[in-house]
Amino acid sequence: YQDASYFDNPAHAPGKLITRLASDAPNIKAVVDARMLQVIYALSAIVACIVIAFIYCWQVAILGTSLILLLAFVMIGLAYKISVMNIEQIKNDEAGRIAIEIIENVKTIQLLTRCDMFFDHYETASKQQKRSELKKGMIEAINYSITQSFMYFMMCFTYAVGIRVIYQGDKSSDDTFKGIIAMMLGAVAVMNSAQYFPEFVKAKTAAGMLFNIIYRKPRTGDLMEGDRPEIRGNILFENVKFSYPQRPLQPIMKGLQWTALRGQTVG
Asked: To the nearest 5 percent, what fractions of the chain are helix, strand and coil?
C-alpha cells in the first residue's frame, strides 16, 4: 500500500525489504518465550532482595543497591551503543539484498556468465557484515564479563562494609549476614538474566524497524480513505511536472498537457 516513491528509494529495494521481514520477526520472537520469564523473575528477585537487605542492614543494602544501579547504567550505555551499531548494520546490509537478487535472476546471471562477479560482490558484502558483527561481539563480550563477575564484586564490597558494621556494633552479625546474603542473591539474579542481553537489544532494534515498516503512512494518503467521486471517463493533464524522488533535478515530465476522452485510446 506504499506510494511508488517509497520503493524508488534504494533503502527500500525488494531485496532489503525481504531481508528485514525474514530476519526481524525471528529476532523479536526470540525474546518472547522463557527468556522473557527469566528476566521478569530476575527483576522481581532483585527488588525482593533489596527490600530484605534494607530491613536487616541498611548500610549493606545502600552499597549493594548502588552497585546494581551502576551496573544498570553501564548496561544501558552498552545497549545504546549496540542499538546504534545494529541500525547502521541494517542500513548497510547489502549481503541479503544481493543474495535475494541473485536467486531471483540466477538464469540471467548464468546466461551472461557473470557468476564470478556476483559472487565477489556477495563475498565483499558478507565480509563487511562480518566485521560489523565482530565489533558488536566485543561490546557484548565486555557486558558478559562484567555481569558474570558481578557477584564477586558484590561479595567483596558487601563483606567489607558488613565487617565494618559488625566491628562498630551498629548491627548484629546475624542481621548483617542476612543483608549480605540478600544482596548476593540479587547479584545471582543479575547474572542469570544478563546472559540474554544481546537477544533483547537485537529484538528492540528489530521491533523498531519492523513497526516502522508496518505503520508507515503513504505520502499519497490512505487508499481506504477519501472521497469516491463519480468518474465520467474524461482525463485532462494540465502542465504536469514530474521527477523521481531520488533524482529531483532530472525532470521526466515538464509542462505535459493532453486530453483523453471517454472511449478514446491514447499512447
From this structure: 70, 5, 25
Q: Cα separation of 1 and 3, whole Å?
A: 7
Amino acid in position 87: I
Altogether, the residues listed in the chain come to a count of: 267
DSSP 8-class letter at 265: -
| pLDDT in 10s for each residue of the chain, 267 residues | 788 778 877 777 777 788 778 888 888 887 777 778 888 888 888 888 888 888 888 888 888 888 888 888 888 888 778 877 877 777 777 777 788 888 888 888 888 888 888 889 888 888 888 888 888 888 888 888 888 888 888 888 888 888 888 888 888 888 888 888 888 888 888 887 777 777 788 888 888 888 888 888 887 777 777 777 777 888 888 999 998 877 888 888 899 988 888 888 888
| CA angle 249–247–85, rounded 5-degree value | 130
* Fold of the domain built from segment(s) 4-215: ABC transporter transmembrane region fold (1.20.1560)
Q: How far apart are CA 60 and CA 69, in angstroms?
A: 14
Rounded Cα–Cα distance for residues 136 and 132 (Å) = 6
CA distance 18 to 1: 16
What is the rounded distance in angstroms from the CA atom of residue 71 to the CA atom of residue 183? 14
Domain boundaries, given as residue ranges, for the chain: 4-215, 233-266
- Cα separation, 98 vs 105, whole angstroms: 10
